[in-house]
Each structure stands twice: as structure tokens, then as C-alpha cells.
Design brief:
This protein is about 70% helix and about 5% strand. The protein has about 200 residues and is mostly helical. Helix 3 (about 65-95) runs antiparallel to helix 4, helix 3 runs antiparallel to helix 6 and helix 4 (about 125-140) packs antiparallel against helix 5. The chain has six helices and three strands. The protein has helices spanning about 5-30, 35-55, 65-95, 125-140, 145-160, 165-195; strands spanning about 100, 105-110, 115-120.
Amino acid sequence: MESPADILITTTVVIFLFAALCAALALVTVALRRPSTVLLAVAGGLVVLCFIVVSVLPYNVPLLLGALLAILGVALAVLGGNPFSRWALAEADAGRTKEGTRGGILVELMMEDAPARQEEILRGGTAIGYLERAAIALGILAGFPAVIAVVVALKGIGRFTELATPAARERFIVGTLASLLWSSAVVGMVWLAIW
């Protein structure tokens, strides 16, 4: 049986985690429209702080409260990965790559017997990103972290034909790694709190 001090500490930790994750979710929701370095840094800082708290304290979150934290963590992992990935792509690209009208990027394709032409590739990246982060978040929470390898393999196979240009390869790698980093960090922290 837990002592009153243990119950108080566990309750305080759960309230802190819940408040910090809600604040981070609010910040990334605001950053969905236009990624902001400050908002994403504060949200990321909150996630890191939560990670440190659950790593250091020897208390596990009770099951029902853990379920609430898991739902909140999955929402933060899925939604927050979008502005974080877009911010990482903007930093890596420095505005060199033009975006297309259908959500992809415009690249110049050169054929041997034809004039160079622009084509929009990597369309649907936003939707794919949401799906990949949801799969990763749910897989990690379910105790199947190998889902990361499955998602990366599927994504690489599905996009293989579009990765002919250096700009496409760079965007694919940076966007995927940023998305994986965000979702894994958020859900890894929740997993540590629950288990």
C-alpha cells in the first residue's frame, strides 16, 4: 500500500505531466498555421522537461490517468510533428525549394532527349506524416517500437521513384527524421510515465 506521501508525489507528477503536455499541444496547434521557432522550442522544452521528470522519478502513473496521458501524448505526437517537420525542412532548405500547388515540391527534371521541365513530386507529405506519426505513437505505446522500421521501409518503398533529385532526397530524409524524432520523443516519454 502506498503512503500518503507517495500518493501526493504521484498526483503532483501526473498533474504536472498533464499540464505540460496540454501546454505543448496548445503551442504546436498555434504553430500549425505557420511554424514558429519560439513556440516549437517551448513545446520541445516542455517535452524534454517531462522526459526528465519521468526518467528521474521512480513513480508510475496509475492506469486510468496513464490512459489519459497516452491519448494526450498521441495527439501531441501526431499534431506536433507537422510544424516541427516543416520548421526542420525550412531550416535545412533555407528557401531554395519551391512548393507546388498540390502540397509537393517543384523540381527540375532533365531528360537526355527532352528539354528540362518542372514537376511536382512528394505530394501528400502532410497526410503521410500524420499517418506515420500515428502509427509510430500507437506502436510504441503498444510495446512494438519496431514499427519505426516498418514505417520507414514502407515510406521509402512508396517514395522510391520520386527520390531521383537531390532536393527530393534531402527533403524526404530531413522531413522523415524530424517527424520520427518528434513522435518518438513524445510517446517515449509517455511510455516511461506509464510503464
